[in-house]
Amino acid sequence: MTNTLFDALMAPHKGEARDFLILPDGSSLSYDDIHRLSGRLANLLTAQGVKPGDRVAVQVQKSPEALALYLATIRAGAVFLPLNTAYTPAEIAYFVGDAEPALVVCDPARAARRDDFLPDGGKLMTLDADGKGDLIEAAICHAEVQNPVPRRGDDLAAILYTSGTTGRSKGAMLSHDNLLSNARVLADAWRFTSEDVLLHALPIFHTHGLFVASNVLMLAGGAMIWLPKFDAAQVIELLPRATSMMGVPTFYTRLLDRPDFTGELVQKMRLFTSGSAPLLAETHRAFEDRTGHRILERYGMTETNMNTSNPYEGERRAGTVGFPLPGVALRITGEDGSLLPRGEIGQIEVRGDNVFQGYWRMPDKTAEDLAPDGWFRTGDLGMIDPDGYVVIVGRGKDLIISGGFNIYPKEVELLIDEMPGVLESAVIGVPHPDFGEGVVAVIARAEGAKPDPDAIIADLSDRLARFKQPKKVMIIDELPRNTMGKVQKAALRAEYAELFSGRDQTR
Ligand code: AMP
User: Fold this and answer.
1) DSSP letter at 370?
2) Smallest Cα–Cα separation from 243: which of 301, 313, 307, 190?
3) Ligand 1 in reach of 321 Cβ (< 6 A)
4) Atom 5 of ligand 1 has which residue's CA nearest to it?
5) CATH architecture classification, 4-16+30-151
6) CB 332 within 8 A of CB 344
7) Matching CATH topology for 4-16+30-151 and 399-495?
8) 240 pLDDT band (50/70/90 cuts)?
């Protein structure tokens, strides 16, 4: 038996001397370098007692070593559990308690606070932004030869936590087949080959940077310019060396903000893709005007990998996410679950090999969203236009997407509601020129109280990742409600729509 994912992504590259990861300083790592490092790390994981099916939780900065650790985890037959680098120790404690990893890998600075997230002990190793730490020191003592642990297509390869609608994050369980089938479809649909050099500026704790970008490039045998984060000046400097870039809408608006981002820079490029949040039709057009390139927008989510894509050849239609990918079935349903005709707005449901196995240890939540016949209710609202293009019109779940990251308001509201002087709160997303949406907390004060917005923001700073923290706090007497008693978030969004319309509001 084989190891489904590793055998497809990295095993074929054994011994290959050509570039795999090109670093900002111009140095590079070959496919063989990463293949060998992943062998050492896989042997280390096994020596540390990580068994097939065990979780390896990883909260580290992006580095070549971090990618090798992902491959090593798969190679050792374990389940990779990446965590957003912005999560606080209090948030990590929840994930560790829920997933019960056999090993946690984090930054050395974070390891100093281990009692805050590993109160009952547990194995911890370190890896820093420069690829150093006791994980790598220990790996050097292990052989680079390792027989990948056999794993079937339906065995788990990864668990990625999504923000929970009820305030609790859910672990989306992804199998080897889920990831491999989607990588194959995308490599083919977007024509990736070993000639490609992808500019990779996305984080690798998220499905976009880890699976959509890295898996696809490994499958195709291409190279990646491996940047620690998105920095517009650096991207402008390196784009002439790339053939493709995958981005979130914020990448494109930030590039367009710079006069030195010109059409000449991107003449060698063959593809720009966008996803994780809606790309404004206006951005699509401005990008085409500046560069002559039409951004290819696609739609996916942690639970499903990628579902739809605009065509590589053919019209890439602004404001749409294109057609269902090969092997993905997509339908629009009404509130009663009935199938809606083209042109009508309803819930987007998808089915296919790309759809996850369910939520980790949450059978009730899984049953609510994933039907026994395989249809997954995405929570996104959309319609299919007369030409078959899928249009996303909103989100059923009130999700906020800021800078490409998801924030479920409930998680923030629950913390604010406990604060002194607060009667209740509604957390909303309103248009923000840089982040797409900015988080705003609207608070109804308790009678006679005068809650202080700055104190509320300060109180949240240690408890919530920065991207979830409200950028503005508005104090009012009473939240608007409809006749059913539901808070009218749409009214609040309209009222505060202009809050960030100035350019100086980012923090
Ligand atoms: P995540 O699980 O973090 O990848 O977030 C998935 C959610 O992002 C989806 O359910 C959508 O609400 C949103 N999303 C992803 N891609 C797009 C897109 N191209 N346009 C609009 N929303 C998107």
Assistant:
1) B
2) 190
3) yes
4) 301
5) 3-Layer(aba) Sandwich (3.40)
6) yes
7) no
8) very high
* Residue type present at position 338: S
Q: Where are the beta strands (DSSP E) in 353-468?
A: 376-384, 390-395, 400-402, 405-407, 422-432, 436-445
CA nearest neighbour of 376 among 351, 346, 340: 351
Model confidence at 398: pLDDT above 90? no
Share of the chain above pLDDT 70, in %: 97
395 CA to centre of ligand 1 in angstroms: 9
Cβ(211)–Cβ(179) below 8 Å? yes
| Ligand 1 pocket residue status of 248, Cβ below 6 Å | no
| Cα distance between residue 326 and residue 360, in whole Å | 27
CA of 277 to the centre of ligand 1 (A): 5
Q: Cite the beta strand spans of 14-106 per DSSP E.
A: 19-22, 28-30, 55-59, 79-82, 103-106
Q: What is the pLDDT of residues 15-41, one digit of tens each?
A: 999 999 999 999 999 999 999 999 999
CATH superfamily ID and name for 189-395: ANL, N-terminal domain (3.40.50.12780)
Q: What is the mean pLDDT of residues 83-91?
A: 92
Angle between helices 31-47 and 64-75 (to 10 degrees): 60
Q: Distance, CA 247 to ligand 1 centroid (Å)?
A: 13
Q: Going by CATH, does the domain composed of 399-495 fall within 3.30.300.30?
A: yes
Q: Name the pTM for this structure.
A: 0.88
pLDDT at 404 over 90: no
Query: In whole angstroms, what is the distance from residue 261 CA to residue 321 CA?
Result: 25
DSSP string over 166-222: TSS-EEEEEEHHHHHHHHHHHHHHTT--TT-EEEE-S-SSSHIIIIIIIIHHHHHT-
Q: Which atom of ligand 1 is nearest to the CA of 379?
A: 10
Neighbours of 37 (CB within 10 A): 23
CB 83 within 8 Å of CB 92: yes
Tokens coding 310: 């605009």
CA distances from 183 to 38, 79, 143, 309, 353 (A): 20, 18, 29, 13, 11
Q: Specify the pLDDT at position 506.
A: 39
Q: Domain residue spans in the chain? A: 4-16+30-151, 189-395, 399-495
